[in-house]
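Late entry, zinc ion complex.
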Amino acid sequence: MLTLGIETSCDDTGVALVEDGRVLSNVVASQYEVHAPFGGVVPELAARAHLENLPLVMDAALREAGRTLDQVDLFAATTGPGLQIALLVGVAEAKGLATATGKPFLAVNHLRAHVHAARMANPDLRPPFLALLVSGGHTSLVRLEESGELEELGRTRDDAAGECFDKVARVLGLPGAGGPAIQKHAAGGDRRKLTLPRGHVKGAPMDFSFSGLKTAAVRAWETGDTELADFCASFQEAIVAALGKRVEKALAARPGIALTAAGGVAANGRLRERLEQLAAAHGSRFFPTPLPLCTDNAAMIAGLAESEYRLLGPSDLATPSQPGLGFRRPSVP
Ligand code: KG4
Ligand code: ZN
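Prediction complete; structure with ligand written out below:
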């Protein structure tokens, strides 16, 4: 079965072809330069860039996979969560192709797809397992049960972990994406130089909060005289510690349960190292997700679409895009 997946939920235009679980191609066009002057993603500009990039990315993905559109058995797109105007581009394209070719359409939940990316990369990773989803837009800790049921154990109450990296990197004046820039400058720095808050949510110990950490970090940078490397190492450590604290609780609650992480921030070397340590300390195994499947991509969209289609059949073509979708399956009210 050949599935074509489309991802346009935020600022990456992705198209991928997956055949029976195997990734044939996974092409992503980033819009980093489009939004950089504005200090954040501008939805209208994202949609316009998706419209321009999508045909090129689609051609490249088909060419790389050595397949043609009429060989595709299933068309899938992210229907949420994400920016409404950006989601619409990919959803319209997938529905249009499905209608024109008479093939089925599948609506994909972007959050579930990130978790699925970890499974695509790790065939030995089977439920039950814990997954830390950490990206520029989301931060959640979920547990996938053997029954297929997904429980969200905790989520951020304010900023996402990646957003916190990006906002602080901007204050530091670092060019490029925030997380990778901070990771780069943290190398060789002293992670114990500064103590920053880990973010505590009263009455909800598994939830995350990064806005206090962000404010404290910005104040420490603007009023202190910490070296850039020490600052970056300490700041990165505070985020890793905040994430690790909740993961540790979840590991302790279910001895031996497997652990994985996905989303852009899961590419962070120090976070991967810490999760590995925590899993080992609790008799669990950590399954890292390869970097191209951590950040936004369409292989995870096509991959999840294929499994959901086999289990539950196609989605209704009337399924709307759902910008505020949580971990539920799309189209479930
Ligand atoms: O999953 P993703 O590509 O897009 C969203 O769905 O948001 O994640 C992008 C986020 C950005 O905030 C970026 O700074 C962060 O992931 N990121 C990292 C690293 N690589 C990407 N954060 C920390 N360390 C990294 N190495
Ligand atoms: Zn994402």
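The mean pLDDT is 95. Will revisit in the morning.
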